[in-house]
């Protein structure tokens, strides 16, 4: 079957307006996931009593749950419970008034938190123990050691994996159609519903996802080089 390049162009044009949606569904969960992932990693790395063990179990369990399943469960829970809660509180808002994009952000942020916690925990474990002892010898507290000594050395280790996680989130954002959110993939498929050029629409979406992933990788690469050079210069000085 010959490929209709005109259909690819039309699908490409239809998908471009939804790029901001895909970027929001990737960057916001990454930021939220970085915060909670770092906290989870610190609690597990320092083996905080009770909390550390609970988080170990949570991470182990969450890593085995597919994103699709998480999206469907979250959607069903929100749709069933939200109206009941707001009705009991006599609030005028209803679930139908809520932007479904928030559900996608919530689920992807949860997934990112779990993955990033493992990334940060691995980066923490890669720091030589002598760094902790040296910081303690000059009177730094544990929090000061993390912020001023460990964190600057941890980031160059974690950055490549954070980049990979962001690319994973960009691709995973295509699943939000399950909760009625239109992103790049579903935007590209809009033209296919009338012309039945589904292959061309998928090709157009693939090109956009590839371009976004390539751009993210290049930006992170530049940032990694700049950050590493800055850290090395600071250590020399």
From TrEMBL:
GO terms for cellular component: plasma membrane. It comes from the Bacteria. It is found in: Cell membrane; Membrane. It is a multi-pass membrane protein. The chain crosses the membrane at residues 26-46, 58-82, 102-120, 157-182, 202-223. The keyword Methyltransferase does not apply. Gene3D superfamilies: MetI-like. Belongs to the binding-protein-dependent transport system permease family. This is Amino acid ABC transporter permease. It comes from Aerococcus viridans.
